[in-house]
Design brief:
The chain is of the alpha+beta class and about 300 residues long. The chain has helices at about 10-40, 60, 100-110, 125-130, 140-155, 200-205, 215-220, 225-235, 245-255, 260-275, and strands at about 45, 55-60, 65-70, 75-85, 90-95, 100, 115-120, 120-125, 155-160, 170, 180, 185, 190-195, 210, 240-245, 280-285, 295-300.
Length: about 300
């Protein structure tokens, strides 16, 4: 019997039925992801991670432009802005543009919350935060810390991690708001903060998708070299000893609005700082196979970034 093509009214009905089935399955998948997101937002859990130390951050965050080496002054306010990230992750953000100092604060809060359930209050003396950040403990620094905690408690994220086929692995912030810092209070009598991290940070850290860097070396990076701190976080997301990043990507990730030639010079200073601290072994800007400029960095054979 010859094969016959499905056509005419029957063929149209079959295609319509197939389309309806796909739409139904997509709706069910979306509903399941939303329910999982809502449940995770309301279930306190511990962040059990091997080797979790000061300086840990999810890879999706470190690869994105959420924290950037911005200049001092007025900060851009984003509203549901799509933040540059890798193709396997979509991040939308509402809040002030965050900088490298904000990233360091979050790393400190994650570290001190490791013995608690995320979703529950963690007590922490504010002087201990500043000491860990290697900052002074004067009034100006206390006021700065309080402002930054306020800003991050107002900032919200939507994160969708994707599989290789483009389907969703998980969604965070879809059915329940995800705040970078869920809550915090200050008790002046004990000079202590009590803060809450959203339990869904556990999901962001899941499947060993997090970076560890050398905090001591991070604190040794010279003042005014925040671009070097951004690069240190970025190279920590990969174990590759040779790493390549397109300059267009780096420029967007770092929220650099100046000329490309000035950006190249700034990158040279930043990589020089990393070389000085033995975080990288070498770096240069070269053309890739598509005739596009890229930064190539070689990591030392035996070191943490």
């Amino acid at each position: 019997m010859k094969n016959r093509k499905i056509g005419g009214a029957c063929g149209s009905d079959f295609r319509a039925s197939l389309q309806a089935t796909f739409e139904f399955l997509n709706e069910m998948e979306e509903k399941a992801l939303n329910e999982k997101d809502f449940d995770a937002a309301n279930l306190p859990q511990r962040l059990f991670l091997p080797g979790l130390d000061l300086g840990a951050m999810p890879n999706h965050i470190n690869r994105s432009g959420l924290f950037a080496p911005i200049a001092k002054g007025a900060r851009t306010f984003h509203r549901q802005a799509t933040i540059i990230s890798r193709s396997d992750c979509e991040i939308r953000y509402t809040g002030e543009q965050l900088d490298e100092a904000d990233a360091e604060i979050i790393m400190v809060l994650i570290f001190f919350a490791r013995s608690f359930h995320l979703g529950e209050y963690v007590p922490l003396q504010r002087a201990q935060v500043l000491r860990t950040l290697e900052r002074g403990d004067g009034v100006v620094q206390y006021e700065w810390l309080h402002r930054r905690l306020n800003a991050m408690s107002e900032a919200t994220l939507f994160v969708e991690a994707k599989n290789r086929d483009g389907s969703s692995r998980y969604k965070i912030g879809k059915s329940a708001v995800f705040r970078i810092l869920k809550e915090f209070t200050y008790d002046p009598d004990t000079d202590t903060y009590s803060y809450v991290l959203d339990p869904r940070w556990v999901q962001l850290f899941g499947n060993r998708e997090f970076s560890r860097l050398d905090w001591t070396k991070k604190m040794m990076i010279s003042r005014g070299q925040d671009m070097a701190k951004t690069l240190q976080r970025l190279i920590a997301t990969s174990s590759d000893k040779v790493q390549r990043y397109a300059l267009d990507y780096l420029k967007a990730k770092m929220c650099y609005g100046g000329r490309m030639r000035d950006f190249r010079a700034a990158l040279s200073r930043a990589t020089g700082e990393l070389y000085k601290l033995d975080i990288i072994a070498n770096a240069q800007i070269e053309m890739n196979t598509r005739k596009e400029e890229q930064l190539v960095m070689w990591l030392p054979e035996m070191s943490e970034t």
